[in-house]
């Protein structure tokens, strides 16, 4: 089945809106109206929900989250970028491991289990895609997902 990415993402954002509003985080969607994907809906949901959840959770007060979509030659790119605390370079190799968290005391306060990104990684692999991270401490983080076109 074809998933219409814009309404699909809007629904996830609206489920997280209370959380975002508490922090004053604004979520921008840079997704064309006609973007469609034929991938497993549960997998795509797990990916977007966990990435947007993190982008709110590790953001600063009144920060922003931007979810964008673009088509490349052989694949599509979905990115989730935030204006948050960033991830120290030395931790990046480990963040997709189950239960791994950068700052244990802060993470305890924020809640969660440290499973989100391990689920993202598994789901992306199921879809034969790839995930990339780019982060700058104190500035923000972008997660980019690449999925094959067909
Ligand atoms: P859960 O997702 O189970 O609620 P979690 O968010 O701590 O818990 P993950 O989503 O797997 O777990 O993320 C692992 C760790 O990577 C987080 O604890 C956090 O330290 C770091 N991290 C993930 N996303 C971001 C982000 N957008 N900005 C900064 N740090 C992040
Ligand atoms: Mg998480």
UniProtKB/TrEMBL annotation:
Residues 1-150 form the Histidine kinase domain. Transmembrane segments: none annotated. This is histidine kinase. The chain holds residues 231 to 380 of 380 of the full protein.
């Amino acid at each position: 089945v074809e998933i219409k990415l814009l309404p699909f993402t809007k629904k996830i954002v609206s489920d997280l809106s209370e959380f975002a509003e508490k922090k004053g985080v604004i979520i921008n969607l840079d997704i064309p109206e006609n973007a469609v994907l034929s991938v497993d809906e549960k997998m795509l949901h797990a990916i977007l929900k966990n990435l947007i959840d993190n982008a709110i959770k590790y953001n600063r007060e009144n920060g922003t989250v931007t979810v964008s979509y673009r088509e490349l030659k052989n694949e599509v790119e979905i990115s989730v970028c935030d204006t948050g605390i960033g991830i120290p370079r030395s931790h990046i190799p480990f963040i997709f491991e189950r239960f791994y968290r950068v700052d244990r005391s802060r993470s305890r306060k924020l809640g969660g289990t440290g499973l989100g990104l391990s689920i993202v990684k598994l789901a992306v692999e199921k879809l034969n895609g790839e995930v990339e991270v780019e982060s700058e401490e104190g500035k923000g983080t972008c997660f980019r997902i690449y999925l094959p076109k067909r």
